[in-house]
Amino acid sequence: LAKTTQPISMDSYEGQEVNITCSHNNIATNDYITWYQQFPSQGPRFIIQGYKTKVTNEVASLFIPADRKSSTLSLPRVSLSDTAVYYCLVGAPGAGSYQLTFGKGTKLSVIP
Amino acid sequence: EAQVTQNPRYLITVTGKKLTVTCSQNMNHEYMSWYRQDPGLGLRQIYYSMNVEVTDKGDVPEGYKVSRKEKRNFPLILESPSPNQTSLYFCASSPLSGTSTYEQYFGPGTRLTVT
Lengths: 112, 115
What we know:
The structure holds two protein chains of two kinds. Chain A is mostly beta strands. Helices cover 0% and strands 46% of the residues of chain A. A five-stranded mixed β-sheet of chain A has the order 1-9-8-3-4, with no helix packed on it. In chain A, strands 2-7-6-5 form a four-stranded antiparallel β-sheet, with no helix packed on it. In chain A, a hairpin with a 5-residue loop joins strand 6 (61-64) and strand 7 (70-75). The relative contact order of chain A is 0.35. In chain B, strands 2, 4, 5, 6, 9, 10 and 11 form a seven-stranded mixed β-sheet that branches. Chain B has a four-stranded antiparallel β-sheet with strand order 1-3-8-7, with no helix packed on it. In chain B, a hairpin with a 2-residue loop joins strand 5 (42-51) and strand 6 (54-57). Chain B is globular and about 40 Å long. Chain A binds chain B through residues 32, 34, 36, 41-46, 49, 87, 89, 91, 93-94, 98-105, and chain B through 4, 31, 33, 35, 40-45, 48, 50, 56, 58-59, 90, 92, 96, 98-99, 101-109.
């Protein structure tokens, strides 16, 4: 399983774009990158997943450079309700193991 | 409504008293998993199951047992709880289908305190 490294915390003002980077230097060829969001007092929820280049959905965008050794979760124009912990996961289910390793996540605080 | 339910939501118990936290999902998912969440340590996987009667250890299995006798249920058993198992526990489920396995649905959590 590829090890991931994220900043422990970030602060942002409302209305700004926020970019959270995850480092995964030993990512394997078949690995995908998945991000989760966890609001206080709730379970995590899946927000986006990608393999290379760019993926966008109604919640966020995910940018993955060609070497895939890092990825960036981008949240456009954040609001107070985006205050949460964001987790990056890297792995390829079925490629030897179905174990999931979440890591410590990045606590995003949005300031009014 | 598609959901993962856990019971109880809150539990205070004493050292050594066996307990079971139940988890049930209504999405016909093959993959189910238990996590514990502790301050500063993030989410750590305890056990997971790929289908009925198929379970495997995660990162922190010591002191826990699981069983998967039915597809929808995946109970977590603490045979002899200790204070270091005081934590917030989450159950999750997902399809066992390529990258969809990583699109997990989480339950609301069970806050366990062992005194």
